[in-house]
Amino acid sequence: MITIEQIQQRLANEITSSKISQAEIARRLGVRHQQISCYVLGKKMPALDTLANLCKILDVDTNYILCQDRSD
């Protein structure tokens, strides 16, 4: 079973390993940079449309973030 914590961890890992600053990610998404920090810290999850746009910015497959890349 996939947990929200697994999704949050993958999202946080992708944001922190990105060469794009949190401030730049926030600017591209049209949100405050504190919002990105909340995603990294696991305090909040982005709305589905924001998640889709965030994945585009980070150049990561949404299926990977949503833990759909396994054959469980």
The CATH topology label is: 434 Repressor (Amino-terminal Domain)
Reading the helices and strands in chain order gives HHHHH
Low-confidence stretches at least 5 residues in length (pLDDT < 50)?
none
Instruction: Output the radius of gyration.
Output: 12 Å
Oligomer: single chain
* Integer average pLDDT: 94
CATH superfamily: lambda repressor-like DNA-binding domains
Largest sheet: none
Straight-line N-to-C gap = 8 Å
Q: Identify the CATH class.
A: Mainly Alpha
Beta-strand level of the residues, as a percent range? under 5%
Structural class: mainly alpha
CATH architecture: Orthogonal Bundle
Alpha plus pi helix count: 5
What is the overall shape?
Answer: globular
Total count of strands: 0
As a percent range, the share of helical residues equals: 55-70%
Provide the domain count: 1
